[in-house]
Amino acid sequence: MRKKKTIAMILAGGQGTRLGALTKNIAKPAVPFGGKYRIIDFPLSNCSNSGIDTVGILTQYKPFFLHSYVGIGSPWDLDRKDGGVFILPPYTHDAGGEWYKGTADAIYQNIEFIDQHDPVWIVILSGDHIYKMDYSRMLEYHEAKAADATLAVIEVPWEDTRRFGIMNTDADDRIIEFEEKPAKAKSNLASMGVYIFRWQYLKYYLVRDAQVADSAHDFGRNIIPGMIDSGQSVYAYRFKDYWRDVGTVESLWEANMDLLSDRPQLDLHDPDWRIYSVNPVRPPHYAGPNSRINQSMVSEGCQIFGQVKRCVIFPNVMIGEGAQVTDSVLMPGVTVAPHAVISRAIIGPDAVVQENARIGGDGSIALVVQDSKPARKGVKP
Amino acid sequence: MKDLLGLINLYEDESAMGPLAGHRPLAAMPYAGRYRLIDFTLSNLVNADVRTVGVLVRDKYRSLIDHLRSGKEWDLARKRDGLYILPPAHSPAAGNGGDIGNLYFNLDYIYASSEDFVVLCGSQTVCNLPLDQAFHYHLSVGADVTVIGRDCPDDWQGPCLTMDEDGQVAALCRPEEPSPYDIQPMGFYIMSKSLMAELVRRCAAEGGHDLFVDGVIKNLASLKVCVFRHTGYVARIDSIAAYFQHQLELLHPSVWQELFFRYGIVYTKVKDEAPAKYKEQAVVKNSLVANGCIIEGTVENCILSRSVVIEKDAVVRNSIISQNVRIGSQARLSHVLCDKDSAVSAGRCLTGALHNPFIVRKGAVV
To answer: What is the distance, to the nearest Å, from the Cα of residue A88 to the centroid of all Cα atoms in its chain?
Structure first.
């Protein structure tokens, strides 16, 4: 067997409580984004495009959709004879078995899986973030610095530093301190939740952390501060491109709207770094004779008869005559009946907006979700 | 439909398609923004649960094989059965000869498949067809051959099937007195595999070229040939004008709905394009737009395939723009057919007509 030098592990077990009803039945990485994708398409496509062909996906919260979505990984070209994609939910063994108690514990419980592949390096990723990143370049940096661990960081606005894990670095970008959500930050370099470790080092720290009863078993709070405190060489890798944590309804909406600018920072049309996804089999969308569509993204299978301005429209959406939809995200299968007016809203999968309804408009982003799965409806004008 | 083998016969008349079929078979011609003609036939087969499909290729089939690959998109990449490409023993001169040579060459193989019946299809007819119903009909009436056809359209100049009083096919001809019972064959017909083998061997021995004409029609006296009438939407792609006009028919939502959804969906190769992007200046009316497009100009009554770019102030009307085409700013297009990878430079003005669209050839820059 060819030896795997690098494998990736994607943490995809989170609920994403602040996304409210959107994650009632699916985990956060399965939330729709960008007109046809699911959030997990981004780390998966990044792995595939970076040449990483062995990926473990750690699931826990409401995993059914995610499991069937990922399948054997073919959409991301990760159906491989040697390697490929592996779904890793919690499991039981002769000494019992437990839920994943934290991000580090999730990896700890899968040490056996990782050891089977015997990698030199391990890339730990979060299934919650929107960005395009070449992990192979970060790995080159990691090797050049002869680092034990490398963390990808991005500059965030100073006022947002209290929402992130913040790194304090020396002149060489070696991390001297890691502060999780500091009240008064000394730097604005936030951790992106992308870590590279020499596997044998990480394994040592994971095993050690697992013995600590009061540990949260978390990378940001326990493992990485522990490495820094023991004097391991931990480096920051500065990432300058687009990166968003879409943890709230507002930030999910905002990141979707970011795609609509004239030259978006996150270019989804780049043929050299495609974001792969499970493609629905649908014909090109139809823009009706009286439709008016501007500054928007529209996906296949839609029929649009009304007005659409600054919207992200997922597949199989039907917008009736005279409807007006602005500054909104319409997820797959949404029906907007004629003359409904929607603004500043996220409409969840398969929801139906009734004729003449008024949704959103002022203040915070309105979120409309379908309570239960409706009967499959015909797409009619 | 475990008992029905699909054979897609690409021995079709491409002569009227001009430069559009210069480098590809009819079956690989782009259609409806993201498909190729063969997708409709393949989807009709798999939607009727046909599990083995052989494609009888003739010539210039590289683009077709690139499109089909393993057959995975149609769920035909199987350990047993699935998709097979059946090439001829020798590449014939273009447009020469019929399907008999290929069928005869591949007969052993076709005969070894587990199915007892075979449906022969082409790629010229675009429709959403209930093939399973046609097969049930074939079995229930005890026909030797069942031809799928439709009522002859008024403007049809080609040969029709005329029927006898028992509802069986009497002849294939251009009737002097058109009758409302005449049937236009759609290029799909069903028979048992053993009958097909017999007819192929007989044609090969007697110098016949075409299984339908020389095998079925010449033996009408001894065969029970019935017709399964399809009443739904049919587009027959037998000229550039037909290719152009039939695609524009998809701008009627009822036609869009029927062709893409009626008896099952239409599968095709996935390209992982981002959703289409409409910029601030975009004006798009009555058009079909595929993923990957970026639109900044005006588009009316058009079909835009994947990854088409319409630059600012360009005006494109009544046109079909194939994959990866860029229309420059302030260009004006009306009744234009742009083939793949072509480009129209800024400020150019191209005008065709509904019956005679202006053609921009594959890869050309005008």
So the answer is: 17
Q: ipTM for the complex?
A: 0.94
Q: Give CA–CA dist B215/B195, Å, rounded.
A: 10
Determine the Cα–Cα distance for residues B196 and A91; give it in Å rounded to an integer: 56
The answer, as to whether pTM is greater than 0.90, is yes
Closest CA to B268 of B240, B214, B226, B306: B306
Alpha carbons A101 and A215: distance in angstroms, whole number: 10
How far is residue B39 CA from its own chain's centroid?
7
Residue A112's contacts (CB-CB under 8 Å, 6 or more residues apart) are none
Count CB atoms within 10 A of the CB of residue A84: 16
**For residue B211, which of B193, B228, B229, B226 has the smallest C-alpha distance?**
B193
| Range in A14-18, A215-219, A236-240, A332-336 the model is least confident about | A14-18
| Residue of B270, B287, B289 with shortest CB distance to A279 | B270
Contact criterion met (CB below 8 Å) for B302 and B285: no
Please give the full DSSP string across B272-318, using - where no structure is assigned.
Answer: -PPPEEE-TT-EEESEEE-TT-EE-SEEES-EE-TT-EE-TT-EEES
Looking at residue B230, the DSSP 8-state letter turns out to be: -
Q: Most B CBs within 10 Å: which of A36, A293, A302, as the mutation test of the B interface?
A: A293
A280 touches chain B (CB under 8 A): no
Strands A96-97, A92-93: parallel, antiparallel or unpaired by DSSP?
A: antiparallel
Average pLDDT over residues B11-25: 90
The string of DSSP letters for B304-355 reads E-TT-EE-TT-EEES-EE-TT-EE-TT-EEESEEEPTT-EE-TT-EEE-BTT
pLDDT at residue B51 in the model:
95
The predicted model gives B233-237 an average pLDDT of 97
- Top residue of A269, A296, A309, A316 to mutate, by most chain B CBs within 10 Å, is A269
DSSP string, B189-204: EEEEHHHHHHHHHHHH
A239: closest CA of chain B, how far (Å): 24
Distance CA B178, CA B186 (A): 18
